[in-house]
Amino acid sequence: MSTYQPVIRAFFADDSTQTAPAARTWHGPAGGVAYDEAGIRAWLMDLRRPIYVVRGPDGRTGVTGEGQEYSGSNGAGGFTLLATAPALPAARLGDATFKQAYGLQYALYAGAMANAIASVEMVTTLGKGGLLGSFGAAGLPPTRLEDAITRIQAALPDGPYAFNLIHSPFDPAMEHRAVDLYLKYAVNLIEASAFLDITPALVRYRLAGLSQAPDGSVITRNRVIAKLSRKEVAARFLAPAPADLVQQLLAEGKITPLQAQLAARVAMADDITVEADSGGHTDNRPLTGLVPTMIAVRDELQGKYQFAQQVRVGAAGGISTPGAA
């Protein structure tokens, strides 16, 4: 007997407490109903189709992705409809505002692997497929980064794409040189990674893209996805830019007085990627515990600052298998 049959029957047994509504029947090709394990598995794994759990005239319970619910009391062929589940294609998963913000078909993105392992070709292929890719800019000289920017923008003139900005505590000039290029070429989305604190270069990138709409709302042109694994770091990205760095950039002429004023109305990040683990190193963090923690921090700071756009929280690392996903 199929290992699926006892599970199905446990939910839809013929007893007084689990009787399906009498009017729910199914109409469709009887030959498409699977009763064996392989056939049931095939239907369940086809996320593009809805699922119908039906009981045939012979009393057997099966699964199909064909046909439809029948509104009458007598389904064609005598099939009773026990349960349904809608189609669940990958494009329906995830936060709809994430897809809308970055022009994506899927709420997924591939993070930046340093030294251009996340290459021009990878980013452009993902972008053409409706997914976001982040170019691995860490460790590259400015000439190579500039070349990558021009090539990706030529291949994806309307996006989507992102570029990495990695924290360089021992060489802050590296961050500044990358930001110079991102501002020069109007790169409007970066993935900030390995940051321990908010830096002047990061604040400059963020605030240089701020402007005000006629209705007084803040337009945020330069967007930031922060990849991190510690809640104290997340708290910094979930708050406005530090006031002392804002004043420093204003005094240096790097931002305008209006941008300095608007800084208090936006968080440092639009999105946070909670990275519990990764292929090249490990942060030794349990993903299932870390994500709720980050969401709680986000909710606390959103309540405090009341940003017009709430920061989204996504998960990465430590997933490892389809079952875990």
Give a structural overview.
The protein has eleven helices and 14 strands. With 325 residues, it is α/β, with parallel strands linked by helices. It has a seven-stranded parallel sheet, covered by helices on one side. The chain has a three-stranded antiparallel sheet with strand order 3-2-5. Helix 4 links the parallel strand 6 (109-110) and strand 7. The protein is elongated.
Secondary-structure map:
Layout (H helix, E strand, L loop, with lengths): L3 H8 L13 E3 L9 H9 L5 E5 L5 E4 L3 E3 L9 E6 L10 H7 L6 E2 L9 H9 L3 E4 L6 H14 L6 E5 L5 H13 L4 E5 L6 H9 L1 E3 L5 E3 L2 E6 L2 H7 L5 H9 L5 H6 L8 E5 L11 H19 L6 E5 L9
Parallel strand pairs: 6-7, 7-8, 8-9, 9-12, 12-13, 13-14
Antiparallel strand pairs: 1-4, 2-3, 2-5, 10-11
Keywords:
11 helices; 325 residues; single chain; alpha/beta; three-stranded antiparallel β-sheet; elongated
Can you tell me the residue ranges where pLDDT is under 50 for at least 5 consecutive residues? Answer: 1-17
Number of strands: 14
Our count of helices gives 11
Q: How confident overall, as mean pLDDT?
A: 90
Helix content: 25-40%
Overall radius of gyration: 25 Å
Structural class: alpha/beta
Strand content: 15-25%
Question: What oligomeric state do these chains adopt?
Answer: single chain
Largest sheet: 7 strands, parallel
Can I get a quick summary?
The chain has 325 residues and is an alpha/beta fold. The chain has 11 helices and 14 strands.
